[in-house]
Amino acid sequence: MGNLSWRFDEREYNYIKEVLDSGFASGTSGNMNTRLEQSFAKKFGRKFAITFNSGTTTLHAALEAFGIGYGDEVIVTPLTVISCMNSIIYCNAIPVFADVEEDTFLIDPECIRKKITKRTKAIMVVNLYGQVANMTEIMKIAEENNLYVLEDCAQCYLGTHNGNIGGTIGHVGSWSFENSKHLTTGDGGIIACDDENLVILLENLTVKALEMRLL
After folding, report:
1. Which of 30, 80, 89, 169 has the fewest CB atoms within 10 Å, i.e. is most exposed?
2. Structural domain containing residue 183
3. How far apart are CA 205 and CA 91, in angstroms?
4. Looking at residue 138, which CATH number applies to its domain?
């Protein structure tokens, strides 16, 4: 990867100084973290946003909040980074591949439909190259089969489908802040959603899972 220092200007350096001066340079305690979550939720039109230490962790946390567990199946595209599959395996669940559309390279709703079994619990949609998958059909399939939908938007910030921003159509949207992504904090990730019950679980997972009764 090339030198990406050109992406940063005086504002970023001032923000870093502000964090260091605050005395909260790690974890989720500082004011800067809260400001990011509030701004992100507002920008994407969702009620809640929760930050994590990586994009991979956001995927894992979302699946945990969905209740994905041993032997469950999660349908996912094979054309994605291995983090997507690993996040499923972390839950002791099984990644099931649905092929992509030839013209968009995004997961094909018809292939999703063919892969559904009695063990299927969720669909992980990966929006790529600034494109959002056919979420109209995917959400229809999910509703028909009582499935959760997780949108991985690590490579699709503010792309739209029928006027709706990617990451705001499924039950949960996930973004990565890794160094090569459109928006970076060096590393990190964020989840956005509207379901308060999911948010309670997600916020617990982002702070060391202190409330074990919620897991």
Report:
1. 89
2. 8-20+29-214
3. 13
4. 3.40.640.10
Q: What is the DSSP string of 125-173?
A: EE--TT----HHHHHHHHHHHT-EEEEE-TT-SS-EETTEETTSSSSEE
- Does residue 129 sit within a domain? yes
DSSP reduced 3-state for 207? coil
Q: Is residue 3 part of a domain?
A: no
SS3 of 4, please?
coil
Instruction: Report the predicted TM-score, pTM, of the whole model to 2 decimal places.
Output: 0.92
- Render each residue's pLDDT in the chain as its tens digit; 215 residues: 678 788 889 998 999 899 888 887 776 667 888 899 999 999 999 999 999 999 999 999 999 999 999 999 999 999 999 999 999 999 999 999 999 999 999 999 999 999 999 999 999 999 999 999 999 999 999 999 999 999 999 999 999 999 999 999 999 999 999 888 888 888 899 999 999 999 999 988 886 555 544 44
**CA separation for the pair 57, 190 (Å, rounded):** 9
CB 115 within 8 A of CB 87: no
Pairwise CA distance, residues 113 & 109, whole Å:
6
CA distance 107 to 124: 9
